[in-house]
Amino acid sequence: MTPLETAHLLEQSVESIIRGQRKTVRNVLCCMISGGHVLLEDNPGTGKTTLAKAIAGSISNSQFNRIQFTPDLLPSDILGVSILNQQTSEFHFHPGPVFTDILLADEINRASPRTQSALLESMAERQATIEGSCHHLDGVFFVIATQNPIEFRGTYPLPEAQMDRFAMQCSLGYVSPEEESRILAAQNNGHPLDDLKAVVSLEQIAALQDAVSQIRISNELRNYIVALSNATRSIEEVQLSASPRASLALMKLAQTLSLFEGRDFVTPETIQELAPDVIAHRLVISPEAKFNGLTGRGVVEDILKKTPVPV
Amino acid sequence: MSTSPPRLLTGTALLFWGGLSGHALAGLLAALLVEASAWLNLRWDFKREFYVKAWQFSILCGALVGILAWLNGVRAGHIHSLFVWAPLILLPLELAQRYGNATKIPLNTFSFFARRKMVNDIHHGRAITPRMLNIGYPYIMVVTLATAMASRNELQHFIGLSLVIGACLFFSIRKKGFRPWAWGCALLLVLSLSVTVQWGMLKLYYHFTGSQPSANHQRHSPNESRTSIGRLGRLKLSPRIFWRMQVHDDSVPQLLRTATYNEYARARWSHRFIPSLSRDDYDYLDPTTMKVSEERSIYTFSSEDNIPSLGKENMQVIGELDAGIKENPIPLPHFTFALGDLGEEAGIECNSLGTVRMHNAEFNVIEYSIWTGESSTTEEPPNAFDLHIPDHELHAIRRIGKHLKLHHQNLSTRQKIAILRDFFNTQFTYTTHLNTPRFDRGKRQSAVGIFLETSRAGHCEYFATATALLLREAGVPSRYCIGFSVNEHDPTRNEWIMRGQHAHAWCRVWIQEHQENNKRVAGHWEDLDLTPASWPSAESATSSTWQRQLTDTWQRWREDFLIWRTRDTNKSKVIVTITLIISLLSLWIIWRLWQSRQRHTRSIHQRYQRPQDAPLTALHKIEPLAAKKIGPRPEGTPLCRWLSDLLQVDPSLEGILLPAIRLHSIIRFDPHGATPEQYHQLTRQTAALRQAIKRKPTQGHTDTMTRPS
To answer: In this structure, are A86 and A235 located in the same domain?
Structure first.
């Protein structure tokens, strides 16, 4: 099976559960294949958790863990803890839910910044340092974090550093009435997730990830990515601009999306399609500019309009 | 209100305002600017911050109107009259909403504190939901209110206001199930009721007051002076400077007379006259106008035959007229012969008692010159009114007259005056604290009677009234006059200052024709002031404080500036300066608006600089041709995506266009490069595409231009 066939198979499997969200599904899968993590910001009931479960269910032998973030959640609840075995008088490490292939961090902004930070190292380094010892996270380590955009009471906005750890932020949004009707029909006799069968293996995912690195990107387009990131640094209203990590994530995601689209090379259209989802959430807009209605997505869209694109 | 008013309603309201306020041109321009937004496609993408700036600009315009009003001499008490200009002051905000893409503006635009709170909320990540407002209807309300302030014609105003408010109500409340006839009848009923109720209330007012409402509610006017006689408590006199006088020779008048009255009744002196053929219902004496030079007009009250040649003026007076009085009496020395330099528009007239009234003054702060003569030329000889004593004062006056033996046959007028002077100087004291006990009407006691018989203390109005009445009792015609005592001199500016504290009342007494030093002296009026001489020191005891000096300096500076500004030679300078400031400000705003419009188009012309080694494909060469069909390519839009818009013009191009796009992408962006065969394929595809495009009609550019890339 070619990498393109694997990608399409995985995509079709997830789309059989999450209907009418083709673009978001593809972006989230791209994020997973490129080794990044995704933050889903959406209203309740739009299918965030189902999406995570659908991805996990489509990959055989993959482990899926879910953490419901609450204000009293502790870092050890995520990373794990060493407990004294009274028979052997030794500490035994009990790994936390972070040791998994796909981790759903539900309503991540409900936990305190201290607990949120526990994910930082794992997301960036694919390892967790607990009580002085370093534990590597093997296999596909993919974090899907969700947060509710309309509730602010009792929440802790994600720290800027953690926002940068997410390769992409996107939202599912509401589906069309026709699609919603099909969703109702599909769940008439039980949830489709119950019948979901794994279509790809972890090994095939690893092969897909290797294939992404073979997708070619020209110097011109690399420079274009840098120009986009760099443009955010010269805007007065932006207090915190896109980091080199953002450029890197954009390049990797563009390569992955090109693979999904069946190309061996990256085009400017692919970069432009991904740029708002990859860069916008990393920008911190000044309060005055926010008052004037400026958003991170608006800044990126403006940059895309103004930055000369390779033709 | 969340909806915007219908087309032409705001413009109509502005025309209504312009018509009734006398600013028709301004109203027409404002209406055109506002309504042109419906016909023009010109729009700006204003951010919220811009609305704040528009609001601040409106405040600036308000301040500018305030300054201009101040330059025209409007006092703080009449600041509300500036609301007439509110439609123009708030026009920037209305235009910002009309020409902006947003239909509503945040309510917190109007409050600095609300804006700060919102910024803080955003900073702390709190949810913000600013209330949005369409200011269309509130603006119309402001326009109608301003019209009400400016309107002089009640009927026109009522009809216009009814139409505008009716239209506002009609367009804002109409919805499904709305019954226009019932609504129209209800509106007519409300309007009829409002007219009836207003008419009824006016009739009630006339019924209870017994007269038409008087426009003049001032304490002193040329026809009436309401004294403080009989009032209890301390008489508070303002330390503010009312008039300033520069005297160019040694003859400094002791008193400056503002108005003279001849009939007293119940603490009120008034002016009565005997109607004659020349003056039926209005007592006036026209002055004779003479031109000394091109710039100077001089008025005299003498017959033309006796006008002597006039030299330099004897004195100049500066002060502020009371804006509440239509015909302002102005202070003059009693031997005034001529007046001048009153301004082109201003006119003066004099009544038979010598009160000189000024009307149609161009500005409230005035300066005028005075030429003095040997005697008064403005007062007519006495008549029956100058000997009249009101009934309620008669008993007390008779008792005092008998006591002072004023009826003695052999006493001359001078001797009678001497008796009275001695009487007041020795037995009376000056006080502004009126602690006179309440008099008993049953015993026919009047305030003047109590003053003369019991308290023997009072202020100048008591002394002047009592003197006038006692002289009348003694058979000497006398009148009561008010004005200012000239006793404060400012040596640094060489001017005499008349404050509210120096306001004074005294008598004019008729000295009959008599022989004096073997010379015949004609009958004439003389000033007689029997108030104890200590009164100016009692009045000025509390006046010298640093606050007063500061206020005096500011008032002098303001008045001098206003006088300077009203001179013909300086008027043009002021107008040019103000026009220049307004023009520069307008140009700056226009330039900024133009810049904000230009910025969008400039970025389009920044072209991508292709590297030297980057191949140029056949598809690049098709761009000018495609631009004719779908408009120029925005610089941020990739060529392939832009060319895809051709499919909207002609979907049949898909078979040619998509392979060409794919080949172009390979040649341009695949680092491995393309094969020669692919180059040839692209050339062929492009040629076919070119032919297909040429066959198709041109599409409007607007969609492509505005579509986000």
So the answer is: no
Answer yes or no: is pLDDT of A71 > 70: yes
Interface of B with A in 20-59 (CB under 8 A): 47-49
Contacts of A308 in chain B (CB under 8 A): 606-609, 635-636
| A150 and A7 inside one domain | yes
Q: Specify the number of domains making up chain A.
A: 2
Instruction: Assess whether pLDDT exceeds 70 at residue B80.
Output: yes
- Domain positions in chain B are 9-173, 224-372, 384-488+503-537, 568-603, 620-706
The answer to whether residues A133 and A249 belong to one domain is no
Q: Report yes or no: B608 at the A interface, CB cutoff 8 Å.
A: yes
- CA–CA gap between residue B132 and residue B665 (Å, rounded): 47
Binned at pLDDT 50, 70 and 90, residue B215 comes out as very low
Distances from the Cα of B697 to the Cαs of B628, B650, B686, in angstroms?
A: 10, 9, 18
CA dist A4 and B537 (Å) reads 109
Residue whose pair of structure tokens reads 């810049």 in the numeric block: B595
The kind and range of the H/E element at A204 are helix A202-212
B494-517 confidence digits (pLDDT tens): 899 998 888 899 999 998 877 777
A85 in a domain, yes or no? yes
Return the SS3 of B259: strand
Contact B291, B282 (CB under 8 A): no
* Average pLDDT across chain B, whole number: 80
Taking the CA of residue A220 and the nearest CA in chain B, the distance in Å comes to: 8
pLDDT tens for A163-218 read 888 999 998 888 888 888 888 888 887 888 888 889 999 889 989 999 999 999 99
Cα B358 from chain centroid? 21
Tell me how many degrees the CA angle B258-B263-B269 measures, rounded to the nearest 5.
50
Q: Which of A229, A257, A53, A14 is nearest to A142 (CA)?
A: A53
Burial class (CB in 10 A: 0-12, 13-18, 19+), B246: middle
Instruction: List residues of chain A with CB under 8 Å from any CB of chain B.
Output: 150, 152, 157, 216-221, 263-269, 272, 287-288, 290-294, 301, 304-311
**Would the pLDDT of B381 be above 80?**
yes
Section B204-227 average pLDDT: 65
Domain identity same for A228 and A162: no
Query: Per-residue pLDDT tens for B467-492?
Result: 999 999 988 999 999 999 998 888 88
Q: Where is the domain boundary, A146, A173, A190?
A: A190
Interface test with B, best of A148, A259, A267 (most B CBs within 10 A): A267
Say how far apart CA B571 and CA B363 lie, in whole Å.
12
> How does pLDDT run across A207-218, given as a tens digit for each residue?
999 999 999 999
User: Is the per-residue pLDDT at B570 higher than 90?
Assistant: no
Least confident segment among A3-7, B170-174, B253-257, B398-402: B170-174
Of A109-123, B227-241, B686-700, the range with the highest mean pLDDT is A109-123
Looking at the structure, tell me whether residues A55 and A130 fall in a common domain.
yes
Which residue range forms the structural domain that includes residue A260?
A: 215-311
Query: The domain that contains A269 carries what CATH number?
Result: 1.10.8.80
As for the ipTM of the complex, it is: 0.87
Q: Are residues A76 and A186 in the same domain?
A: yes
Chain A closest CA to B206's CA: distance in Å?
58
Torsion sign, CA atoms B320, B324, B328, B329: negative
- Kindly list the residues from chain A whose CB atom is less than 8 angstroms away from the CB atom of residue B122: 287, 290-291
Taking alpha carbons only, the member of B219, B259, B272, B300 closest to residue B504 is B259
Indicate if A163 and A271 belong to the same structural domain. Answer: no
The CATH class of the B384-488+503-537 domain is alpha beta
Residues A168 and A306 in one domain: no
CATH code: domain of residue A184: 3.40.50.300
Q: Which helix (H) or strand (E) holds B704?
A: helix B702-706
